[in-house]
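Hi L., both proteins are below.
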Amino acid sequence: MKCRKQWAVGLLVGFTAVGGLFAGATKDQGATGSTGASTVKPVTIKVGDNWGPTHPMAAALDSVFKPQIEQASKGAITVDIYHSGTLGNEADLWNAVRNGTIEVAIVGTPMNQEYPTMMISDWPFLYRDLNHAKKVWTGPVAEEINTEFHQKFPTVYMLAWGPNSARTFTSNKKLTSVDDFKGQKFRMPSNPIHVGIAENLGASAQVIPLGELFSALETGVVDGQDNGMVTVISEAFYEVQKYLYETNHIIATLEIVVSAPFYDKLTADQKKIIGDAAKATAAKAWDDYIKSVDSDRKFLQDKGVTVTPTTAEDQQRIIQMIQPLTDKLFVEHAWAKPLTDRIKAVQ
């Protein structure tokens, strides 16, 4: 009888121990999940840009970046997008990502004074056409600069390069030929290439943030500005400008950048989801932008803007007039000649 009691007690202790093991496993399922798969802590990505929602990059954030990430992560990653400078101007967005205040931003080249290689985004007359530009910035050249970029700015990763636009000039004063630049005042980005182009063409340049540009055009602080037709539309500049000269002097890019301290804490799967979505977003934006050029031109003409394509002769005159600028850039930057030659060779 005594043996039976001892056996029963031992059996009870054994079941209790095993039960404790199962209880421990159940308790830890917040980390492992009921199926043994890893359960990832929810993540929210705050994304800021400086563009209206109709700009191809902004639109691709809404149609590709956000849904692709949220679907691929099965809701574990939430993407909140803020367009039109809601989170600040371009310099603010760059500093916010760099400092970790926001996770992702779409910027141009506010960092080009610290990292002059980014001036390549604004190099004049660099590409054969828009498709050539897309091939460059969705290929190996972009990947190599991304690596160098992170070495220069360890708190930021560059994820992808999308289109800003093929830049054109607009004005309230007559602007239908190269000779019309003389004496006009143009808002130009805070970039020596843009400022140099305006000055070499006989105009004066004034640096004004994009968010303040509509008012500056409306009140006559400047006569005109340079941006792509897509931006002229998304920012409604056609309401305060009469002429557009389709110079296409720069095919500028916008970059998707992410805060490294945020990104480095993610799992490998999460990084891949976000990285893939960034590349898909840029590719979609390039395709949409290239398709939009003809319809953008017609839209502006329908709004009463005089749109004048640049003739081959005028383009050569512009290239010759800005030669002092490009010569100066090649002298000042050892990277410029090899990189521009490599870009021009991309097929």
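That was the first. Here is the second:
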Amino acid sequence: MRPASLADVVGQAHLLGENQPLTQLILAKTLHSAILWGPPGTGKTTLARLIATNADADFIALSAVMAGVKDIRAAVAGANRALDRPTILFLDEVHRFNKAQQDAFLPYVEDGTLTFIGATTENPSFALNNALLSRARVYVLKSLMPDELVQVMRRALSCERTLEGRVDDEFLHQMAEAADGDARRALNLLELALGLAQSRSGGAAGPGGIDAAIVAEVTSGRMRRFDRQGDMFYEHISALHKAVRGSDPDAALYWFARMLDGGCDPQYVARRILRMASEDIGNADPRTLRIALDAWETYERLGSPEGELALAQAIVFLACAAKSNAVYRAYNDAVADVGKYGTLEVPQHLRNAPTRLMKELGYGKGYRYAHNEADAFAAGVTYFPDAMGQRRYYEPVERGLEIRIAAKLRELRARNRDASKGDP
């Protein structure tokens, strides 16, 4: 059932289309080290075998789950014995090798003893060391679409003439949807369905042996792809956060549901909702911070699944709220200035003076108590270190409550300027 040529490959048109660079390299029998990165069941091993076949190369397949440095050395020894033809070392699940193990085959890749092809479901930027990445080109494989999975299953059925044409397209499409982009899963579902049909027909599955009941049985309890620590996890939370920031409550709910469906801890989502309330809404609607905390507390008291509704409620409110990252930007600017200016002294007038000595040294001298001033505002007073002068970090946006905050700050800042002009 595995494709024997590029023409047989289903999907990955962005890599294996007629004029795509990888297609041209394969047809030209040009070998180069590569990393094949993609979800399970997208054809990484198949593609590596096709590259070896087209280049007439020895193909040594290892899995990082079971292999070690000893196996790498054995592969090198085999490559040295086969000097008349190139050798491809294919390492599945390459991300499971630690950095030292990855370094073990770098010299042989460098001197041309081996052409290395690694397959991984994890982001190579994090899972592989830079030395290996610099010597290999990364190709990203995509999940197969349902129609493509149907093609894979039809090919499997055509391999056995007694089965060809005996499964309705409707059932194939239902299994393709359940396979969620994974060709291996699609074939497993098909095999299971055929086995059930055969057992229920007394050992001879005839035409129409696979029915709706069998398809429903084999596709029940399916789980969408989601990893709780890998790329998909961070991609999902990024999508949720950006949907809230972009004021799209519908998309935000969708990504929230996707994360829960994949088994994400709702407590993690609650923490991120709290972050969104502060980072993306801030003083435009300060209520969101309290709403996020209330939703988190509600979830802790109710648990799943009842508590998840409170998180959904908070997500919708945050998505619909006025947005401002003014405090977020202001804080980052203040942190940058702390690093830039170093340990500047606190101005004398801002220092507390609890002892006589401190008063004699001038601590607190000239301080103006704001509550004794008009409107509880001491116009012209500077609260920054003398070497910095007056700095401005917080610039409210013209949205939500920050409209009023901005108006108030404009008034106070204008009074500060007028007071400064009046200084002798």
